[in-house]
Amino acid sequence: MILHSLHLRRFCQHFDRGVTFSPRLNMVVGHNGSGKTNLLRGLMMGFTGDAGPPCTKAENAMVGVATGDGSRVEVVVEHGGQRAQIRRIILPTSAKDTMLYAGSTDEEGIRGFTEVNAALWDWLQVTRKQLDDYVFVKQRKIDDLIDRSETERGRELASLFGLQNAATIHKKLGDFRSAIEVPIVTGIDNMRAEVKRLEGVIAGHVTALATYADLPEDTTERQNTLTTQANAYTTRQTLERELIDPAAVLTATNVELQTIADAQLKMQVDVQTFDTAMANMADEVAEATAALATYATLENNKNALAELERQRLALVNRGYRTDPDYPVRPAKYDEAETARAQLIPLNAAAVTKTHAINQLNDQAAVCEACGQQMPGLEERQAQLLKLQTDRSALVEQARPLVEIVQAYDDYVAAYNKCVGARQALNNDIKVWQGHWATIPKPDPPRMSKERAESLVSEHARYVQGKQALLDLSQPRLQRQAELQATKTAKTDETAKINAKLANVPNLTADQSELARQQLEHLRQRERNRTTIESQKAAAEASLTQWQTQLTAAEAKELETAGTRYALEYFKTLRNVFHPNEAPRVVSFTYMQQIEEQVNDVLRLFEAPFSVQIDDALGFTATFYETGKQMADKRLSVGERIVLSMAFRIAVNATFAGSLGLLILDEPTAGLDEHNLGCLPRALEQLRVLSDERGLQIIFVTHEPRIAGYFDHVIDLGEPIT
């Protein structure tokens, strides 16, 4: 199965959050209160319809959400090449959960809480217990098995492996057996012999425990002290080596910062020198600048006046060249309009004649089909000749009229040209006069032009010199800021290392080695005492049981054989369900089965130890380098987390391997800086395991520093308020 996406709508503190998942390694990170655990509860809601305690289904809706607004969880999964969307409705309560396969319509979807669960779990070939115990590993459930007592471990493993009802059955069989009256009981001699034997065993344990009378009940504080002393020499050497590089960098940084400070001080002095010089000559420079502006104005006016004089002479010459006389009026000036009117009908008649001539010319003289002369050709030719003669007469009649009109038009054009030339000359003269009046004529300045140019040039050199100094200063200031940041970082780093050193005892290598030997001796004595106490407790419990049985046997020795048989039957059956019998045997058998898988994962994680199942249903670690053995409770926090992850992966592979999904909630909770160092290699190899087994993993943590080991990171950010 592949989990593709999750959508939470008004679920707990998630208003509208959509999340996608990689088919391999996924990390959910965020601060406390950002909704990491509730995101996993949303996944549980999607797969089971129940997010689990401490809330009921309706209480998972966001506080303040009205029923009409709606609250729901949507999960998209793929299994066997087919996708499906599972929608769990929290509000409104009247709506039903649905499961819809890809490509199906809403009407074809499966509806109802029970119906969706049945269809979903049948499709995935999974049970509610597999999801609760083997896929979703809840917060603080990663390594809590290690901290449990032997009895608590037995109960926890019985629940994990589906035997949680054994204790109830054992109790009920005991109650039923107790209600049976046993008239006759056999084997009293054997019971007495066993009681006597157990009393001897307990006496031996008491004698053995007397040799540990000097050992305190709780050796944790002493072990912690010896552990600190045993690691003190190596830790101090490591920290002192770590101080070398920051100290060297700080020294070099301070030297370079002093060099920059000296250069900046000299630059400031030089800039002040330029500022003083420019301040002393400010008045003269202002006067020189004004003088140069006046000289420029005069120079520009000189050129402008010369140009206007040239324009004035050109206008004068142009006026002399213009003909002052108007053209002579033609003799028939007054007849022009009459002649123009007479030409209109003559031109119209000529156009009509021309049109008729063109029509006659367009008519064919010979038939194109037979080549014969067209009929009426002579009449058309005679008509054409007459029309041409009439048109020529009209042209001759119009010629003197045309000459009168042409002479009139030439006169009017020449007259208008003469008038326009004089008007244009007058306009140009007015424009010239306007330009002449606008040219300023300032008085010459008192300061010479050479002196003004010298002062302005000198001031410009000062400005350029100052700017050059400021430009050179900018890279130094940038470098100074970089060095200051480096100094601050290295100072903080040195302070942190010194703070760590202050908490490390100042011991020699021999003193640390002696502390290590004392620690190992103390731990061995603690293990021996614990073993003897466990054996003594088991013997006492067994003695109590035998004494109880012996008392009952002696009291009911006279019962019938049938009743005795029933008693023995229920006794045997009850013993099968005793925590130390069937549940323990089954749990021990399962633990043996997954022992090899746990060690396979530990080797993949490159852990420095392997483990074996012990009689207390726990793990005993054997370190490869030293051959030293250690109970799982004695491992460091980081080593316990690596072991617990290997155990959960093995359990998942054994009981839910076909599903291909493992969800770990806060496995790194409580890890300090030192113990976090145990995880990177394990997380690197987690990718290899995920690829080899096709295992999709969702890893919830508040440690953003390990994000680089995951294919997909879901950052929930700051707490949601």
Description:
The chain has 721 residues and is of the alpha/beta class. Helix content is 63%, strand content 11%. The chain is built from 18 helices and 14 strands. The strands form three sheets. The chain has a six-stranded antiparallel sheet, with helices on one face. It has a five-stranded parallel sheet with strand order 8-12-13-3-14, sandwiched between helices. The chain is elongated, with a radius of gyration of 57 Å.
Oligomer: single chain
Cα gyration radius (Å)? 57 Å
Looking at this structure, what is the CATH superfamily of one domain?
P-loop containing nucleotide triphosphate hydrolases
Number of strands: 14
Helix/strand structural class: alpha/beta
Structure in a nutshell:
The protein is α/β, with parallel strands linked by helices.
Write the layout of secondary structure elements.
Elements lengths: L1 E10 L2 E7 L4 E5 L6 H13 L22 E9 L2 E10 L6 E4 L8 E2 L1 H12 L3 H8 E2 L6 H4 L2 H11 L5 H13 L9 H23 L9 H61 L1 H40 L14 H27 L14 H62 L10 H54 L6 H47 L5 H16 L5 H23 L4 E5 L5 E5 L5 E3 L5 H20 L4 E5 L7 H4 L2 H15 L2 E6 L10 E4 L6
Parallel strand pairs: 3-13, 3-14, 8-12, 12-13
Antiparallel strand pairs: 1-2, 1-4, 4-5, 5-6, 6-7, 9-10, 10-11
Helix pairs in contact: 3-16, 5-15, 6-14, 7-13, 8-12, 8-13, 9-11, 9-12, 10-11, 15-16
Give short descriptive properties of this protein.
single chain; 721 residues; alpha/beta; six-stranded antiparallel sheet; 63% helix
